[in-house]
Amino acid sequence: MRGWDGLRDAPAVQALRLYGLVAAGGFRRFATYRAATFAGVFTNTVFGFILAYTFIALWHERPQLGGYDQAQALTFVWVGQALLAPAALLGFGFQEELQERIRSGDVAVDLYRPADLQLWWCAHDMGRAAFQLLGRGVVPLAAGALAFELALPTAVHTWLLFLLSVALGCLVSFAIRYLVGLAAFWLLDGQGINLINSLVAMLLSGTLLPLTVFPGAFGDVAQALPWAAMLQVPADVLLGRHTGAGLAGALAFQAVWAGALLAAGRAMQAVATRKVVVQGG
Amino acid sequence: MIEVEDLEKVFSVRRRAGRLRRTRHEVRAVGGISFTVPRGEMVGYIGPNGAGKSTTIKMLTGILTPSSGRLRVAGIDPAQERTRLARRIGVVFGQRTTLWWDLPLLDSYRLMRRMYRIPDDRYHANLARCTELLDLGDLLEVPVRQLSLGQRMRGDIAAALLHDPEVLYLDEPTIGLDVLSKAKVREFLRELNADRGTTVLLTTHDLSDIEQLCRRVMVIDHGRLMYDGDLHGLHAVGESERMLVVDLERELPPIDVAGCRTVKVEGPRQWLAFPAGASAAPLVAEVAERWPLVDLSVREPDIEDVIARMYA
Amino acid sequence: MADLAAGARGYGLIVAMWVRTTMTYRMSFAMTALGNLLMTAADFAAIAIMFSHTDVLGGFTFAEVGLLYGTTSTSLGLADLLLGNLDRIGGRIRDGTMDTLLVRPVPVFAQIAADRFALRRIGRVLQGLIVLVWSLTALEGVAWTPVSVLLVPVMVLSGAAIFGAVFACGAAFQFWATDAAEVQNSFTYGGNTLTQYPPTIFSKELVRGVTFVVPLAFVNWLPALHILGRDDPLGLPGWVDFASPLVAAACCALAGLAWRTGLRGYRSTGS
Questions:
Q1: Does residue C179 belong to the interface with chain A, where contact is any CB pair within 8 Å?
Q2: Domains, chain B, ordered by start
Q3: Do A57 and C45 lie within an 8 Å CB cutoff?
Q4: For residue B77, with 0-12 CB atoms within 10 Å meaning exposed, 13-18 middle and 19 or more buried, which class applies?
Q5: Phi–psi pair at B82, nearest 5 degrees
Q6: What's the gap in Å between the CA of C188 and the closest CA on chain A?
Q7: What distance in Å separates residue A60's CA from the closest CA in chain C?
Q8: A-C interface: how many C-beta pairs under 8 angstroms?
Q9: What residues form DSSP beta bridges with C249?
Q10: Is residue B218 classed exposed, middle or buried when 0-12, 13-18 and 19+ CB atoms within 10 A define those classes?
Q11: Touching, A vs C (3+ Cβ pairs under 8 A)
Q12: Which residue in A208, A214, A227 has the most chain C C-beta atoms within 10 A of its own C-beta, making it the best mutation to test that interface?
């Protein structure tokens, strides 16, 4: 008889429970760094204030720049600060740990575990993102809303769609950094590629300026690249700039990039695994 | 060389009481200890975890400032003149290296040479000597992080001696080392002490270090000096007993002689315990006279048992 | 004074060793230095994009903002290159390796600041200098006098000293909060971002705060406003435009005091 017990033993359910635990572990690990969290909130808030004033100056000269009014532009600033840590907009993250394990050869042990390497790190990183969204995202956004006039939505479903978009953005962010991490199989040290990753993420996610403000073709290309899924799309979802089919399109844009990059990660992982098996690490 | 008088270190620790409230507690890590170590002596400093060993060493090296008491190492007050003292002492921490993790050993040594302003001839002579005796020849070009624990420890000891320190502190120098590395380190320290007259203060968990290296031993517990004297005396203080094992011609009832007690009888073999401080000769004579003796041996007490009894 | 000399000597020795090590991998060094340069150039790219949409920001032209950007970024770059590693102190206290520094005959400050000296950070200095030189050639209508010419290097060095003092204060703060390294980023990198823009775009309270509380206004705002022939938004007396070296000296003295207090605390509690 297959009742609840049978279901509980199903491989898929067991896997779900395993990665759920890994994600919870990631959440807890970052929750223990209290002073670091506080320091991060402080820094995000300070940068939010500085950027907000520069945006006010720019939108004072050019109202409606990039299709935003001033309140929307300021909202963009504070959403950017709120997502800086969870979506790893500066490109820092777990991949340095992964690279270290690849360099030391410990990754061979990880690859022979019954858990999948990509899913393992993904669950861990999503747990981290969840904590940082709560621990480092809420306060700066609230501070911004108190100090400036923001264009925050009142409808609950907009906030829910925003959260969905943020989750997809974090997934894209993870998928990119996983590729960067695996690059350590072929590179002597990860310093160079990490630097490039940070540079590209900072510039093309819209952390410095909304991508809609980028000039000409550069702006169009930037908005089609995966980094746009990390901040530009979630911010626009929150600002209600996508409706109906456009909204579905925006979320699909994120989901397609996430799927494609995760698939690329799997392919790269398969090649790397073969390399480990052939060369013995 | 080392003079310590009424040395005290009190930490103020905050503990959580309730959700937000914290209360202050005073913890006396070292509570008024006094001792002197003359030049050229090699002293073992032992005690259980948290007894105040590391705190004492940290005060002797100038890392920590004492709460009260008088302290002189090579005539210098460590708390006041830490950097001046640093040139005259060598320190080896068993658990952490003083070398630069990412650099080859030799690079660390070259930097030490400039930092300590070691004259060229002294540097080369000391390096050559340490390289030979500690077997570092093949390791000099290897980054420290790639060394095994034993290799790193030998590298650390050499680093601590390049500037001819008058006092050498060793904090757990053999922790985690294999038998061969341990033997090499001990041998080297013994020679160093004999040839150079370097004063050595050694803390350790491994009492065989002390048995093999130190004539004098100090025992600290709960921040107080429980014993300061030679190893032999430690047995007397610890009320330890030696064991006389006798083989008789045949099975007999337990031997009954004054000054000892029979703890075990197994066929013709009997175990007689007597105070470690007493001589075995009169006991052996009396047993031999009154019982049909075939063979005998004397077993020394285990120092770990002695110390464990002191802490109890 | 003897301490200062011993510290400078020890710092020099350790830095020289790391530079030698770095230079054994020239290619890797060149790449990472270039990467650093590009990384810090990203925020200048943002400013350039802003000026593709407008001619003035807060009443300042692109070249004028360039002067502000170039001076503060060169200053921060120098401070970051020379003292940026001080923020490792929290980690050293937590893992206990702080003690190994205290048994060496060189002041701890010099040892930590020089440890793992990262020459690649010269990329930030270069990037700041490139923008500074460009802005000096692009500035129009500035009446250069011997005093204002001299003010440029004085401003950069004073700014570096002020940022250096902030690095040192941040490190001293870690004696109490060992994992709060990121707080100082608000004042160093945050202060850098702030002073890249003209003071006119910020609220008066904020400008007042970075003039009198954390004196970042002396990094470049006040002297640069003098060079550009503009009034400062707070209407301070004219001599404050030249006060940067004095403010820098006071900041360094304060940082030294904070560091000593922190180290004394560490040596009495061991944690």
A1: yes
A2: 2-235 (3.40.50.300), 241-311 (3.30.70)
A3: no
A4: middle
A5: -60, -50
A6: 10
A7: 9
A8: 96
A9: none
A10: buried
A11: yes
A12: A208
CA dihedral for B274, B275, B276, B278, sign (positive or negative): negative
Beta bridge partners of B297: B245
**How many domains is chain A partitioned into structurally?**
1
Chain C residues with CB inside 8 Å of B91's CB?
Answer: 100, 103
Does residue C20 belong to the interface with chain A, where contact is any CB pair within 8 Å? no
Chains B and A are in contact, defined as 3 or more C-beta pairs closer than 8 angstroms: no
Sequence letter at residue C137: T
A69-81 per-residue burial string, b: 16 or more CB within 10 A, e: under 16: ebebbbbbbbbbb
Give the domain range for residue A78: 4-279
Which residues partner with B169 through β-bridges? B91, B201
Pairwise CA distance, residues C249 & C251, whole Å = 5
From the CA of C170, how many Å to the nearest CA of chain A?
Answer: 12
Q: Enumerate residues 6+ apart whose C-beta is below 8 A from C107.
A: B83, C3, C6, C7, C10
**pLDDT tens, A26-56?**
999 988 888 889 989 999 999 999 999 999 9
Helix (H), strand (E) at residue B61? helix B53-61
C48 touching chain A per CB within 8 A: no
DSSP structural state of residue C25:
T
Structural contact between residues A63 and A155, judged by C-beta atoms closer than 8 angstroms: no
What pTM was estimated for this model as a whole? 0.87
- State phi, psi for C55 to the nearest 5 degrees: -90, -30
Suggest the residue from C9, C103, C269 to mutate for an interface test with chain B (most B CBs closer than 10 A). C103
CB-based contacts of C245, cutoff 8 Å, min separation 6: C154, C157, C158
Q: Chain C residues with CB inside 8 Å of B102's CB?
A: 21, 116
- For residue C232, what are the CA distances in angstroms to C141, C226, C227, C242? 18, 8, 12, 13
Residue B269 to residue B278: CA distance in whole angstroms: 22
Can you say whether residue A90 is alpha, beta or left, with left for phi > 0 and alpha for psi between -120 and 50 degrees? alpha
The alpha carbon of residue A79 is apart from the nearest alpha carbon of chain C, in Å, by 18
C42 contacts A199? CB cut-off 8 A: yes
Gyration radius of chain B over CA positions: 24
Model confidence pLDDT, tens digit, residues A96-135: 889 988 888 888 888 878 888 999 999 999 999 999 999 9
Here the ipTM equals: 0.91
Give me A123's structure tokens: 């669950």
User: pLDDT of chain B along its 312 residues, tens only?
Assistant: 899 999 999 888 776 666 666 677 888 889 889 999 999 999 999 887 778 888 999 999 999 999 999 999 999 999 999 999 999 999 998 888 888 888 899 999 999 999 999 999 999 999 999 999 888 989 999 988 888 888 888 999 999 999 999 999 998 888 778 888 888 888 889 988 888 889 999 988 777 788 888 889 998 888 888 889 887 777 666 667 788 889 998 888 888 888 888 888 888 999 888 887 778 888 888 888 888 888 988 887 766 667 776 666
pLDDT of residue B262: 86
